[in-house]
Write a structure and sequence with these properties.
heterodimer; A: about 475 residues; mainly alpha; B: about 1000 residues; alpha/beta; Dimethylsulfoxide Reductase, domain 2; 7-stranded mixed sheet; 6-stranded mixed barrel; about 25% helix; disordered C terminus
């Protein structure tokens, strides 16, 4: 970081940290005994997870009938949750890959947890296409591989199949990207831990990292390449997910605006989730100096921008429906807003389009409680967006004779709660076993104290 | 068809060409072995074995796994429709209409279709009961005989109470049986009865008879409450006849005019060209004025004026009178009123219009409703006074189907011997001394005489599953006659039927064989010399209708009475008018509901003269504001069995509340007036009970008109889905009613992805003929093993029917526009379901069918979401198939689907394949008419045609050229292989009803 930069831009890491301080601070939650708060969170989320596992087991044992679906509404909570979780993941990739390519240095404070969040969100998302099948034990039939059944191949025309590819690719790339980014930090952890099983694991996972310039060079190259690979995924995955709907003939689904609309929505919801998690982590893990108000503010600005795109997309849909002259389309949108599910529509609209506009105010952006509330509201709104798209389009389509309504069952609600349980359980465990902030990267952007410090190998590397 | 038909006669199977066949070694051994074993068998048994003998020699037409049709006659109701019983491997499976039958003409209603599931009902009584405990038939016979002997000696009164039984053999037997007693009488009861019609003819024609109606000969039909397309007397017969004048073509743009007066929407009211909303008491007023207008008679003294309150304006009346007059000799007025005065007015009008001898016949009358209310009233009196020594009850459940059950129950205690023939333990059977359950139709020999000049026979297709026998056999046994039902019927036919038959044949054996094989025999009968004599001047003696609501008790199309209460298919069948399955409810008009502050499912309490009835409300368009409707035939003891008929899971709710039957018995509201058991009850008060019981409705939105607040700009309705026009518009432009949408058949981005070079199967449904009676729904259920899912699942919109009948009601209540549309998989050539399935479980066949491979389906439900017609059905659970007897009703040609897979109409692919095999065996190609899909086969209105769209000579292609042909959502380019033909209403102007423009 040049001197000029340091003077012009506000520091990204506060509190006059030395490199050792940074390492200590970030590594602290991994070595300390978990706080009560952590235990509380872990207890709550693992209870939710157990509830979810029970619900899913029951559903698989008894049938999809344990959900509130019907002959008209064939998807509801299942695919809503799927799209919601995939969307959550997108912000992680955006922050770690896209912002990396754009050299947005502030990302270093949040990218690690955002990537982890992506990974866990995609895991949560991946569960739903599996369990939403009537016969999930035959899920492997959706994979194209040579087989003895004919051979019977998959239908390459089906967007669901594209989903299979998109989601599996996404999960793979996200995992690799996250892991590669972790390597220097894992090496730090290896060096910090006392000999024992902990150290063996870290040393195994850090793949013999030795901090040499050559290692760094390779690392940076791979990281850059992976960032390059992951970037298109930010756009492609949700584009493909949106095609589940866009390629269908159902009014409200059959829309060309869906790919950009879904990508924007995904990032919007993802940012909201990152903010939610960050604000909690910041507080509970005492990372105020690393995740600063300016970070929060930037995230808020990004979220506001995305919210505006999403709002524009909503309005465009209505305009196009009116403009198209397609009576089915027109009816669908009027029904969406003023039909039996208008409560869902207005929940969505309020949460996603109206409330985020408070972020135009700097005072709000810098008020952590306000930001937290807005982030939660956007999370809720974005869940409803998917619910609205799926359920309101299906419940009243072409023939009025088949019109129906949808009411979720306890099993579906438990499954949704369970997915949050899985997500938070994984995230809380992650905070305990890996540095929640990329130590090496943060050091790169930290305004390191001038006072002489005890030179550690890590610090040297970080400066390099 | 006759040639394909087999007979259950044991002696004459495949005997035609046996003599000219040379015998080889194998056959000799077979024959020798058969003879030997037969000798051995006959040596072991005292009586000749008459049926259920393993087939030593296969008859020509018999092969394992092959479906063989046997002629029979339906006894679901007394209409006596011709039946073909499809039997496979000794199991009767599928009921179909008999195309040659002079009455039903190939049609069969939902009740007839549902016979097999009743046959295999595990809850049917398996044998006689004596004082509530199972007993051996001999034991019971001894008891009954002994008691009867005592009664014979003491001269006590013996009464036999049955529903309408048209059987000539049984009539003779009853006469014989009752003749043995000093005071024996047969009382026939129908609920609701047509006794008033017979009584009115007694007054006007001197004979108490029910005329035979010929709707095909009528150009103007005026019906007062008679739901002749739904459930009035002989709906299948009438539908087939009515249909003949309802098919306008561009070349012959003619059709009959049909006006209908009713308080509550019915199947017939839905099809009428003009429907008037009136109360049952308005019938007489309108008829009297109509008779005056026509000049048939003077207005009876004291007739109230025809005011608008009766739902009909004087100008409407004049124009109706003009129409009737213009169609002199080709018009028909029918009425279901149970009031003799009203029926006399009907007779006067029909006489004046020259209808007698043309559109209705009293010289060869119908016997389809013989119920005699006066005789029933007398019997109830005798019972109350303890004058009856022995009471035999068949068909009806005395303590359930009639009012004042508690009084009757006490009265029955004074009867020495109460014998019930019920096949389930109903209320009467529970208190009867002896229950001797009747065999199911398919287990027994029966004969019928639905109209004077037609007798039919019904052969068994399976040996009785329990120790049951027919009423005929029981009476024979108890009157000391020998022989089983077959012998008795044969004997009667030899003596009485053959001498009067049009084609008596050269010997009785020949005559009998032919009759059994064909199923019916036409008779020569001496016409009854009944001519009209104007009755003495009628005077208006109607009492003013008391305050309060009028309740009309009716029977549903799918539930003609408590006799069928144990039939799960009929219980679940959505009513054609209300689309409600499982149970009954109080129908009320939207205004009434608003007045009472009641919404659908709110329980209301009806009170009249101390009788109370609590049922959920159903809001039905077109209902008279002062009239409520409640279906009879519900609340039957024993139907608690259906509580767990559906899938059982965490949030599942039982089909019936714990310990309660399906629906509530409305019979206590029946009332006696002038010796008639009336289905109309006046002076009923209604109040909200404050509870809610959701109704299992399959259609939640009932109109093609979109909700006003959210309708699309410039497209307030979806009438293009079920297109309709008027006859006047149709005469001017045969394509009238076609919506203005751009459809370009040739516009396609890609070359056709499914070139159909061989056959291209398609369906065509004539919406003008379709009445929505839902016979096809049960036909499809029976053919395709569609599970019964129970109230809770239907309520959750998870019914499994592959075929449904959509019903749309729009317009104002005084002039409804009702349109029905059978909806099944449309087999799109550009099928939205096919492209989205990730595993190719639904694919297009080379013959244009959209096929579902259950094995391959992983159950993503994407196809169902993307189906514009929402015809795909998902197996939410493993539906119950744990009753191995009920499973006998399953069609072995169709897979029973397991949970997690999608299913839908296959266009009866199994029938297509069977026809292909037959054609291949005969070395020819499939010909038009070889294949009849299940829904098509039994359609009473013959509204459905299946065929090869690639065969220019096929009937479907010929019909599809018609100007009325259209396809649903054509503008979307799905290229459906199911076509529809537009509705044409016989009306002036462009309005199809409801006072607003359509199409």
């Amino acid at each position: 970081m040049s001197e000029v930069d340091q003077e012009l831009r506000p520091p990204l890491v506060l509190g006059d940290k030395s490199l050792a301080d940074i390492t200590d601070d970030i590594a602290a939650p991994m070595v300390a005994t978990p706080s009560r708060l952590w235990w509380f969170g872990f207890g709550l989320s693992s209870a939710a997870l157990v509830l979810g596992v029970a619900a899913v087991s029951y559903q698989i044992a008894v049938g999809i009938g344990t959900w509130g679906l019907n002959r008209t509404v064939g998807w509801a909570f299942d695919i809503t949750n799927f799209v919601f979780w995939v969307g959550i993941g997108h912000a992680g990739t955006l922050i770690s890959a896209v912002l990396f390519l754009f050299r947005q240095k502030w990302r270093t404070a949040v990218n690690r947890s955002a990537e982890a969040m992506t990974l866990f969100a995609v895991m949560c998302a991946g569960i739903f296409p599996l369990i939403h099948m009537g016969r999930p034990w035959l899920f492997f039939w959706t994979l194209p591989y040579p087989n003895y059944r004919g051979p019977l191949w998959v239908n390459f025309k089906s967007p669901l199949l594209w989903d299979v590819f998109a989601i599996s690719t996404y999960l793979l790339i996200s995992a690799v990207f996250w892991y590669v980014g972790l390597i220097p930090d894992l090496a730090t952890m290896r060096d910090r831990s006392r000999p024992g099983w902990r150290r063996s694991i870290f040393s195994f996972l850090s793949l013999g990292w030795n901090g040499s310039a050559r290692t760094w060079h390779h690392y940076e190259t791979v990281y850059m390449l992976l960032a390059g690979l992951a970037t298109p995924l930010v756009f492609s995955v949700h584009t493909i997910v949106s095609m589940d709907f866009a390629t269908a003939v159902i009014p409200g689904w059959h829309t060309t605006i869906f790919p950009p609309y879904f990508v924007a929505g995904a990032i919007f919801s993802g940012l909201a989730m990152v903010l939610t998690l960050m604000l909690i982590a910041r507080k509970t893990m005492h990372l105020e100096d690393y995740i600063t108000l300016s970070h929060v503010e930037r995230m808020c600005k990004l979220m506001l921008a995305m919210g505006c795109i999403v709002g524009l997309a909503y309005c465009t849909e209505f305009f196009i429906a009116a403009y198209s002259g397609n009576a089915y389309e027109q009816f669908l949108f009027r029904n969406r807003a003023f039909g039996p599910f208008s409560w869902a529509f207005f929940t969505m609209f309020t949460c996603n389009v109206i409330i985020p506009h408070v972020l135009w105010f700097r005072a709000v952006r810098r008020n952590l409680l306000a930001v937290f509330v807005v982030a939660i509201v956007v999370n809720i709104g974005m869940w409803f967006e998917r619910f609205v798209i799926i359920v309101t389009s299906l419940h009243r389509d072409f023939l009025p004779s088949s019109w129906s309504y949808y009411i979720p069952t306890s099993i579906e609600v438990a499954t949704l709660i369970g997915s949050f349980g899985l997500f938070f359980t994984c995230f809380l465990l992650f905070c305990r076993v890996a540095p929640a902030i990329a130590i090496a990267e943060v050091k790169g952007v930290a305004n390191v104290k001038k006072a002489p410090v005890e030179e550690t190998p890590e610090a040297k590397e970080a400066v390099a | 068809m006759t040639g394909d038909r087999a007979t259950a006669e044991p002696l004459h199977r495949g005997s035609t060409s046996a003599s000219d066949r040379s015998v080889d070694r194998r056959q000799f051994l077979e024959a020798a072995g058969f003879t030997l074993s037969l000798t051995a068998l006959t040596a072991c048994t005292r009586q000749p074995v008459q049926y259920a003998l393993p087939l030593g020699v296969m008859p020509d037409s018999f092969a394992p796994g092959k479906l063989v049709n046997y002629a029979a006659t339906c006894n679901g109701c007394p209409a006596g429709c011709g039946l073909l019983v499809g039997v496979r491997d000794g199991r009767p499976l599928k009921m179909e209409g008999m195309p040659e039958h002079p009455l039903s003409q190939g049609g069969l209603c939902a009740v007839g279709q549902a016979l097999p599931i009743a046959l295999y009902d595990r809850h049917r009584l398996e044998g006689p009961l004596y004082r509530g405990r199972p007993a051996e038939p001999d034991e019971v016979d001894a008891v009954v005989r002994e008691k009867l002997q005592k009664i014979r000696e003491s001269g006590g009164a013996v009464r036999l109470l049955t529903g309408t039984r048209t059987s000539p053999t049984l009539s003779a037997m009853i006469e014989n049986f009752l003749g043995q007693f000093a005071d024996g009488r047969h009382v026939v009861v129908d609920v609701p009865s047509s006794w008033a019609i017979r009584q009115a003819h007694q007054e006007t024609h001197g004979h108490a008879l029910l005329p035979r109606y010929f709707f095909d000969r009528a150009q103007v039909i005026v019906s007062f409450g008679a739901d002749f397309l739904g459930n009035w007397i002989s709906p299948v017969e009438y539908t087939a006849a009515w249909r003949k004048n309802r098919i306008p073509t561009a070349d012959r743009p003619e059709m009959s005019y049909h006006a209908h007066f009713e308080p509550q929407l019915t199947v017939t009211g839905s099809k009428a060209d003009r429907r008037y909303r009136v109360t049952p008491s308005d019938y007489a007023v309108i008829l009297a004025h109509l008779a005056r207008e026509l000049g048939a008679m003077a207005l009876p003294d004291g007739t109230p004026p025809l005011d608008t309150a009766s739902g009909m304006s004087p100008s409407d009346l004049r124009s109706l009178a003009k129409k009737l007059q213009a169609a002199h000799g080709a018009s028909l007025v029918v009425c279901d009123s149970q009031d003799v005065f009203t029926q006399q007015l009907v007779n006067a009008i029909n006489e004046h219009l020259g209808s007698y001898g043309k559109t209705l016949d009293v010289t060869r009358p119908s016997r389809q409703r013989l119920g005699d209310d006066a005789a029933l009233a007398k019997l109830l009196e005798e019972l109350a006074e303890g004058q009856v020594a022995a009471l035999f009850v068949a068909d009806i459940d005395l303590l359930h189907d009639l009012p004042e059950a508690s009084r009757l129950r006490t009265a029955l205690k004074q009867v020495d011997l109460v014998v019930s023939f019920a096949d389930h333990l109903n209320a009467t059977a529970k208190v009867a001394d002896v229950v001797f359950p009747e065999s199911h139709l398919l287990e027994s020999w029966n004969d019928f005489q639905p109209v004077a000049d037609l007798v039919s026979i019904s052969q068994p297709t399976i040996r009785p599953l329990g120790k049951t026998r027919t009423l005929l056999a029981s009476l024979a046994k108890w009157s000391g006659q020998t022989g089983d039902d077959r012998t008795l019927i044969r004997r009667h036919w030899e003596k009485y039927i053959r001498p009067t038959a049009k084609e008596p044949g050269s010997s009785f054996t020949e005559f009998w064989d032919k009759a059994v094989q064909l199923g019916f025999v036409e008779r020569k009968v001496t016409p009854i010399p009944a001519t009209y004599k104007a009755p003495a001047a009628l005077t208006w003696d109607r009492k003013a209708v008391p305050e309060g609501y009028t309740v009309v008790l009716y029977t549903k199309v799918g539930m003609p009475g408590s006799r069928h209460a144990h039939n799960p298919w009929l219980q679940e069948l959505p009513d054609p008018v209300t689309k409600v399955s499982w149970g009954n409810y109080v129908c009320m008009g939207p205004k009434t509901a608003e007045e009472l502050g009641v919404a659908e499912g709110d329980v209301v309490e009806l009170t009249v003269d101390g009788e109370k009835l609590e049922l959920p409300a159903y809001v039905l368009a077109g209902q008279h504001d002062r009239v409520l409707g409640v279906a009879l035939g519900y609340g039957c003891p024993g139907t608690e069995r259906f509580a767990n008929v559906g899938p059982q899971w965490l949030e599942a709710r039982p089909t019936t509340p714990p310990g309660e039957p399906v629906g509530r018995n409305a019979a206590p509201l029946l009332n006696w007036q002038r010796n008639t058991l009336r289905c109309v009850r006046h002076g009923v008060s209604v109040r909200k009970a404050g509870r809610h019981r959701a109704l299992a409705v399959t259609q939640l939105y009932h109109s093609l008109k979109l909700p006003e607040s959210i309708a699309a700009y410039g497209a307030p309705d979806r009438s293009a889905v079920v297109q309709a026009t008027t006859l006047e518009a149709f005469r001017k432009d045969p394509e009238a009613g076609k919506p203005e949408v751009h459809v370009d058949e040739n516009l396609d981005l890609w070359p056709p992805d499914h070139p159909k070079e061989g056959h291209a199967w398609g369906l065509l449904v004539d919406l003008n003929a379709c009445t929505g009676c839902s016979a096809c729904v049960i036909a499809c259920q029976s053919e395709n093993n569609i599970p019964v899912v129970g109230w809770d699942e239907v309520r959750r919109n998870r019914e499994m029917y592959w075929m449904r009948v959509d019903r749309y009601v729009q317009g104002d209540d005084d002039d409804l526009d009702v349109r029905v549309q059978p909806m099944m998989c449309q087999h799109c050539d550009h099928a939205p379901c096919e492209t989205v399935c990730p595993v190719l479980a639904t694919v297009h066949s080379e013959e244009g069918l959209n096929q579902q491979a259950y094995n391959r389906c992983v159950g993503t439900r994407y196809c169902a979401n993307n189906c514009p017609f929402k015809v795909r059905r998902f197996n939410w659970f493993n539906y119950r198939h744990d009753d191995d007897r009920e499973n006998l009703a399953l069609n072995p040609d169709v897979v029973v689907r397991s949970r997690g897979v999608m299913e839908k109409c296959s266009m009866c692919i199994q029938r297509i394949e069977a026809a292909r095999v037959e054609a291949k065996k005969e070395g020819r190609d499939i010909e038009d008419g070889d294949i009849q899909v299940a829904c098509q086969q039994s359609c009473p209105a013959q509204a459905i045609v299946f065929g090869d769209l690639n065969d220019p000579k096929s009937r479907i292609v010929q019909l599809a050229k018609d100007s009325r042909q259209y396809r649903v959502l054509e503008e979307y380019g799905f290229r459906t292989n199911v076509g529809y033909r537009r509705i044409v209403r016989h009306r002036e102007g462009g309005e199809t009803g409801g006072g607003h423009h359509h199409g």
